[in-house]
Every structure is written in structure tokens, then in C-alpha cells.
């Protein structure tokens, strides 16, 4: 994999999922997704003094360019290049092609195993690495951070003593929430946006910390899943780390949450009636679901 960054007027962004056999077209699509500058309008430079890269052959590979892992690409919009306007007869066809070939924000489902929050955050911050075995390590990380600062993480904040909390969060049957998201946002130095499908709102952790990176999760009242940008080209890996200036990604995430709300793909934690999909037991409310999960290990619930 190539470790590349691109710098534009919007800030510096991490270019994920590229290697030396990735095409120039893939590079341009990744840059366009981060900066909003379409491929034909991109002027990409590298080195010092900066030299403009020849991106005319979209099928050529990145090994054909004078770039190496660790480079920062300088991206500008070349206003001297004008996109060719489509004829009226072809506009409808082009619009439909654009809709079908545009990148989308999508949910990546992870298991409902009491550790979905930790699995989801690890997945997005690591650039799309799915590893359900990461949960114990992340739980221990949170416990160490909390125990190292008992003043900041007091009983008033945690709802239990510092020592009790550290023992509690290390257990594999406990669920993570806002406290854990906040801690991991600081640790990974990135904004974590949690999109709620019931209220169709975004809770942004680390929003005022000046981070340049953003990751996104979707939350249905009980379960967390990671969100990622998927590209039409099946060979292009999904993008999980975004620039904090990438507002279109947030808009698409809210649209995804609104669609889930219309389909009632959420759990009202205050008034919901549940049925355990494993044993078919009827339950009422979040606390009953938590207790049932702790007693039985069953974590697959459906709203009645």
C-alpha cells in the first residue's frame, strides 16, 4: 500500500486504499471524493519545487508516476480546463449514468456480540480492517486511559467509581456508548460521528478539537455499524476515513439514516417492545434487553 496525502485549499487528507498498481483514474476518483475537484479539473503536483504530474492516461498505474510512499500531493483546481457541456439530448443519459456510478455512503454490518461499538470503531480508524478479536484490546485501552486520570474520569462522569468502571468495561458482556466513543476519539485524534437512525441526527465527538480526520458510525438504539464510502469500481477498496471538511459524506449518512427511520430500522430505547430472535422471549425496554443479553448471551433482538 502507498501512504499518500493530498493537500488542497480545504486541508490535508489521507489517500486510502492505493498501491503502486492502482490506476491514475482511481487516484483521481479518491482525490475528487476528498476535495470535490473532478478528475478533469485536477492539477496534481509533487516534490519540491512542485512538478505537475501527467494524469492524461487514466489507465496507467501509479508506479508510472514519480511518486512514492510518504509523499504529499498538492492538488489545485485548474480553472483553465473547462468541462465539455453535454448536448440537451444527452443530458438525461449522462445524469442517469452519474447516479449509477457515483460513490455512496453505505453500512458495513458487524456482529451483534456486545462489542459492536469497538469492532466498528476499529474498522473505520484502521481503514477498513475487520477484526472482531480487537474488542478486548480496545476495552483494555479504555480502562487504562480512565484509570490513569481519576480526576477527569470521576464517579460523576462514569456513573460508577473509577475502579468499578475499569473492571466493568473490560467485561466482554458490557456495551459501549458515548463515554467510550469520546475516549476513543481523543485517543485516535479523529472526529467520530454517530448517526442515529431514530432521530436522524449526528452526534459528533471531537468536533471542537481541531482534528482533520473523521470517521462515521450508524446507531439504531442498540447496535453500532461502521459507515464507509463505496465506489462503483469493485476493485477499489471502500473509504472509511474522511476529511472533516467532507460535508457531502455527512449529508449522505443522514440520508441513509432517514431511509432506515422510514423503514423503522431502529429501536426506541425508552418505549420499545422487543422479541429475542434467539429464544423468542418478549422484552420491554433497553434495560430488559441488556439484562437478557447478560443472562443468556443472546444479542439479536427484533422490534415488535
Describe this structure in words.
The strands form three sheets. Strands 6, 7, 8, 9, 10 and 11 form a six-stranded mixed β-sheet that branches. The longest helix has 16 residues, at 247-262. Strand 12 and strand 13 (282-284) form a beta hairpin. This protein has nine helices and 14 strands. Residues 83-100 and 266-270 have low confidence and may be disordered. It is elongated, with a radius of gyration of 22 Å. With 304 residues, the chain is an alpha+beta fold. It has helices spanning 24-35, 88-101, 116-125, 135-147, 155-158, 162-169, 178-188, 247-262, 286-296; strands at residues 4-8, 11-15, 42-46, 51-52, 72-77, 104-107, 191-196, 201-205, 213-219, 224-230, 242-243, 273-276, 282-284, 301-303. The chain is 33% helix and 21% strand. The N and C termini lie far apart (46 Å). Helix 4 (135-147) runs antiparallel to helix 6 (162-169).
Describe the secondary structure blueprint for this structure:
Blueprint: E1 4-8, E2 11-15, H1 24-35, E3 42-46, E4 51-52, E5 72-77, H2 88-101, E6 104-107, H3 116-125, H4 135-147, H5 155-158, H6 162-169, H7 178-188, E7 191-196, E8 201-205, E9 213-219, E10 224-230, E11 242-243, H8 247-262, E12 273-276, E13 282-284, H9 286-296, E14 301-303
Short description:
This protein is an alpha+beta fold and 304 residues long. 33% of the residues lie in helices and 21% in strands.
- How many β-strands, per DSSP? 14
> In percent, how helical is the residue content?
25-40%
Shape: elongated
Spans where pLDDT lies below 50 across 5 or more residues? 83-100, 266-270
Give the structural class: alpha+beta
- Secondary-structure element order, as H and E? EEHEEEHEHHHHHEEEEEHEEHE
Radius of gyration: 22 Å
Mean pLDDT: 82
Distance between the termini: 46 Å
What summary fits the major beta sheet?
Answer: 6 strands, mixed
Number of helices: 9
* Portion in strands: 15-25%
Amino acid at each position: 500500500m502507498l501512504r499518500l496525502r493530498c493537500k488542497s485549499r480545504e486541508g490535508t487528507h489521507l489517500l486510502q486504499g492505493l498501491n503502486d498498481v492502482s490506476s491514475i483514474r482511481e487516484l483521481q476518483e479518491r482525490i475528487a471524493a476528498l476535495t470535490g475537484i473532478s478528475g478533469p479539473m485536477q492539477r496534481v503536483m509533487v516534490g519540491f519545487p512542485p512538478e505537475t504530474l501527467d494524469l492524461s492516461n487514466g489507465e496507467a498505474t501509479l508506479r508510472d508516476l514519480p511518486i512514492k510512499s510518504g509523499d504529499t500531493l498538492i492538488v489545485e483546481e485548474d480553472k483553465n480546463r473547462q468541462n465539455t457541456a453535454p448536448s440537451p439530448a444527452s443530458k438525461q443519459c449522462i445524469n442517469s449514468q452519474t447516479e449509477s456510478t457515483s460513490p455512496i455512503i453505505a453500512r458495513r454490518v458487524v456482529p451483534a456480540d456486545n462489542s459492536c461499538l469497538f469492532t466498528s470503531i476499529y474498522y473505520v480508524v484502521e481503514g477498513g480492517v475487520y477484526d472482531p478479536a480487537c474488542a478486548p484490546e480496545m476495552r483494555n485501552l479504555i480502562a487504562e486511559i480512565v484509570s490513569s486520570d481519576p480526576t477527569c474520569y470521576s464517579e460523576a462522569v462514569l456513573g460508577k467509581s473509577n475502579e468499578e468502571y475499569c473492571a466493568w468495561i473490560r467485561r466482554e458482556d458490557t456495551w459501549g456508548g458515548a463515554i467510550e466513543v469520546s475516549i476513543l476519539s481523543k485517543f485516535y485524534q479523529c472526529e467520530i460521528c454517530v448517526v442515529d437512525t431514530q432521530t436522524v441526527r449526528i452526534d459528533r465527538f471531537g468536533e471542537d478539537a481541531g482534528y482533520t480526520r473523521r470517521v462515521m458510525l450508524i446507531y439504531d438504539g442498540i447496535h453500532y455499524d461502521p459507515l464507509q464510502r463505496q465506489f462503483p469500481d469493485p476493485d477499489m477498496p471502500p473509504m472509511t476515513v474522511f476529511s472533516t471538511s467532507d460535508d457531502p459524506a455527512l449529508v449522505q449518512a443522514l440520508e441513509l439514516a432517514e431511509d432506515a427511520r422510514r423503514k423503522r430500522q431502529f429501536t426506541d430505547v425508552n418505549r420499545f417492545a422487543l422479541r429475542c430472535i434467539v429464544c423468542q422471549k418478549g422484552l420491554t425496554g433497553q434495560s430488559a434487553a441488556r439484562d437478557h443479553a447478560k443472562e443468556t448471551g443472546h444479542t439479536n433482538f427484533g422490534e415488535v
